[in-house]
Amino acid sequence: MIAGNVTLKVEARRGAGAPGAAAWAALALGLGASLFLWQESRDQLRLKAVARLQRAAERVTTALQASLGSYESTLRGGAGFLAHGGEVTESEFRSYWQRLGFADRDAGVGSLAFIVPVRRADLPAYVERRRLAGPALNLATSGVRDDLFLIQFYEGTEPSRSVVGFDTGAIPPNREALEQARDLGLARVAAPISPRDPTVGPALAIQYPVFRGPAGPASAEERRERLLGWVSLLVRVRPVMERILGEEDTDIAISLHDGAGTGRSVPLYARSGPEVLPGAQRVTAPLDLG
């Protein structure tokens, strides 16, 4: 399963109506309420408000888990295609992407890529093989590491041939996610990615390992020996969250953050709406994604 955690937080909006998430992330939910204090005690009202927010938190996290589970299933299918389809060509990979139909049915998916490990000593031979097989590489790497993690195939809703040949291992958080996926045999979420188009908003790269052979390797050492590469899905946070929140009350303010509990917090998504009241109640609940 995809590894990571989500934390839910609850706050109140200003002027709202009645009372009506890899890698770490935080969902901040806010509640604004116009409450008839003469009918019930303040404590009772507070408990009801918190209970309502907790129910909303459960719905949101359940839906988020379901979405990530669906994406992981896509990655598993991609890994099977790449592992058992022989030497996959660029056109075959493009056809596979088109059959998935994400461009028409899921605005949350930005791209699908196949990343391969290449030893620096083997780089000239690899570049020559890719020159003969296509597509041409726009090799981009940095540092002096012995191993590179190069994008060999890339297809997306907005195709960009310039990324083929990019060394994703040159980005430390992404290298960490790829190495963990390889050693654990699990999907891992890399640190947030900022697409070139700022209107798209942040995205998450979900990495899934691809191994040789009919059965999964049993140890980290065997996984390293049998690694073919990784299938990588770029998921746009905003469309996913907006789809999940479509039926939630508008007086609940929700934001998504990467890095909760690690001493840093990177905002990924914030639901638009009235401002959150100072001193609003906040409910926090961890969500285990892995």
Number of helices: 7
The main sheet orders its strands as 9-8-2-1-10
Provide the residue-averaged pLDDT. Answer: 78
Main sheet properties: 5 strands, mixed
Fraction of residues in helix: 25-40%
Strand content: 25-35%
Q: Distance between the terminal alpha carbons, to the nearest Å?
A: 5 Å
Q: Give the oligomer, counting copies of the same chain as homo and different chains as hetero.
A: single chain
What is the chain-wise order of helices and strands?
EEHHHEHEHEEHEHEEE
Principal-axes geometry comes out as: elongated
Low-confidence stretches: 15-39
Instruction: List how many beta strands DSSP finds.
Output: 10
Rg, please?
Answer: 22 Å
Query: In terms of structural class, how would the helical and strand content be classed?
Result: alpha+beta
If you had to describe this structure to a student in words, what would you say it looks like?
It is a single chain. This protein is α+β, with helices and mostly antiparallel strands. The chain has helices at 42-84, 90-100, 102-105, 123-133, 172-184, 220-226, 237-244; strands at 5-11, 24-31, 109-119, 147-156, 188-189, 203-211, 227-236, 252-258, 266-270, 285-288. Strands 9-8-2-1-10 form a five-stranded mixed β-sheet, covered by helices on one side. The chain has a five-stranded antiparallel β-sheet with strand order 4-3-7-6-5, sandwiched between helices. The longest helix is centred in the N-terminal third of the chain and has 43 residues, at 42-84. The chain starts with a strand and ends with a strand.
